[in-house]
Amino acid sequence: MDNQLDHRGYWDGDTDTNNMGSRSLESMAAERFSRRQTIMGSLQASVAAFLGTTLLAACRDDDDAVAPTVSAGQDATVSAGRTVTLTGSATGAGAAAWAQTGGPAVTLSGTGETVTFLSPGVAQNTPLTFTYGAAGGGVTATDSTVITVTPAQLAFTAVPKSQSDVVVVPAGYNVTVLTRTGDPIAAGVPAYRNDGTDTNFAQRIGDHHDALAYFGLNAAGNKDLASSTRGLIVQNHENINNQYLHVNGSTNVSTGPRPEGEAIKEIEAHGVSVTEIRDTGNRQWTWVQDSRYNRRLTPNTPTVMRGPARGSDLLRTAYSPAGTDGRGTINNCANGVSVWSTVVTCEENWAGYFRRPSSGAASDNANRSVGEQVSLRRYGVTSSTGSYAWSTVNSQNSIFRKWDARATAADATQDYRNEPNQYGWVVEFDQYNPASAPRKRTALGRFGHEGAWFGLPVAGRPIAVYMGDDSRGEYLYKFVSRENWLAADATASDPLAIGDKYLDQGTLYAARFNADGTGQWLPLVFGQTPNRPATGADPEYVFASQADICVNARLAGDAVRATPMDRPEWTGVNPANGEIYLTLTNSNATLRPISGTDAANPRHYNDPKGATEPVPDPATPPQPTNQYGNPNGHIIRLRETDDNGAGTTFRWDIYLFGADNVDADPVNVNISGLDDSNSFSSPDGLWFSRPTNPAGQGRPLMWLQTDDGAILDRTNNQMLACFPGRVGDGGARTITNRAQNGTTRQQATIVGANATPATVKRFLVGPQECELTGVDSTPDGRTLFAGIQHPGEAGDATRPTSNWPQSQAGTNSGRPRSGLVAITKADGGIVGI
């Protein structure tokens, strides 16, 4: 690099040696003085522009001054997410400073000769220029250095497959267990004994930790979305391990009658929690039991119905004869964060909680219209008792009665026949306002919501929300707001009113994936959506209103012939390019036989389970269990035409295929080329790193979690870190599928680029029998949060099959509990890169 010294000496030499002309000494001196002032003025303005006034304060007008000698050090190359130290040196200087003079802006920390910055996330090699300037004796000197930032790398050694009973992370990382099932989140609530005697889950952390999100607080305890040291964790509690909640497990759980105390505990252990957490120093996290923000949403929390179905006859119940209010949220699985920073929590497998026999003497078909019966069957409200049989409690209290969905009274305002229609929604609430009532956004449709992720906002365009329906053979949906996005709404003082603006009116769509890699969004709009044709024993279903379409979105998806998918779960949006990712967890031969594959769901194969387990008796080795269908799942991605979330067409390909790398057919099953460092099965949770730190910039890091039942004979469930490419980075492929009877069938599809250890790598493996659920980070990316759901789910109180989280600290005893973990890098760096 070149030293750029003050040039007065050189110019004086030119003047003194120029003997052309016959000017007087006086004129020559006047020109010299004028030119020096101009040059010094220009230099000082330039220095002021990039170094400020620090150096200029040390300058003086002295023709005999000697310029300092400076050095900015050598050029260097670093990857994104690294802390870079710039050290300059100067002799003969009274003041010195650094400034950035080229490339994407970064924040310099420190003063004088040494400063640091965090290298930003980039998509390609990107030079950043920094200038070191020093002043002395009225003279300023500068020198520059170039730091070239390369795209982020998966800077950790892949975690091997594991069947241990701890959370395993790479070397150089730490795991802190935060809130666990039953932990108190209100003043005066005693610590959890974990022996089945605990009560009051309305003020304790719920069970089955699922999707989560972090929201910052400043030092004063007020909303600050940029804070990475204090904040709120909002976490879903999808279900329960009831065998561990009670002293001896549940009583009469299959038949009833249920004891009231047990039922209350189980009901309250569902829902959502809001808990304040704090970094007590160096990313040592703990939760605040008595925070004013701590809150539980349970199946008993009052809610408000919004959107087209509000006030509809379909929502009228004994609790809300007007059909405008509801009570509670349940089976909260995935989530989303709105563009205006509220939480949306999503109700997934709610249908099974209701008692409503569909046949036999206890059936209420005689009191139901044919259309009602079609709807109830389509959503699976057909249980003779309902999950956990809560309606069998010998009490007239409506918190138990509402789970009995039979039509037994004169009309819907006198019983709970419509209570199932109160569930299956996207639920928005303000995590910073514990007094506010959650709002159920009916315009976004009713189904088994696995999540609701918002597309990238563009001023002047509508907002788009992407949603999977988590059941085999269901659809991908999109909601597009009627209102165009106004950037000022992101910081509005009443965020739920902003939700009213964008989420209560708009257009709901279901997706159709074409064989050529294109797709359409099919509007589910009353007057445009045809009747759902007769199917099997079900007669034709005639929609009566937009409220009917929203309540019966699955029937509307059937009517427009959307593409049935292999269990659509989480959606995620790449913050760098807006592409949408959808995890498709798995399917089986019953729901998708070999003749039922299509380009977007192309595989049918067998992945035998149990063949690798130890053989206790060589004379009678265990036989592997066949798993025909698509037991390992895949991830599909799409790009909206013209990157317009309000559009009705898109392109798609399959980003990754799950597979067992050990013995899977590398041509027709392990299509993505997975190896021992990244093989996975049953993709579920999916989340992109925040664009507020280098992991979410340039080439954003994507986190992938599994809910595996197919290769658990090799490893517990896991979380992987990925650098995905873009739609179209692969090509066409024809797969040879094979059925159990030996028949084969060709299926054409479109695949993404192969995985490599540089683009997909196993980061974490969970404890025994758990599912990895929920992921977010602090804005600075230095703490990653993840949910550990139902460890030891196959055991019971007398024989638990996991001891986590006690086992994380080396204690291999006690009942297992779901929990939240904080993962940090020992050197304080950004997790994953």
TrEMBL record:
Region feature (Disordered): 1-22, 592-630, 789-819
InterPro entries: Ig-like_fold, PhoX
Matches recorded under Gene3D superfamilies: Immunoglobulins
Compositional bias segments (type: Basic and acidic residues): 1-11
Chain intervals with Polar residues compositional bias: 799-815
Record field: compositional bias (Pro residues): 615-624
Superkingdom of origin: Bacteria
Protein name in UniProt: Phosphatase
Organism: Croceibacterium mercuriale
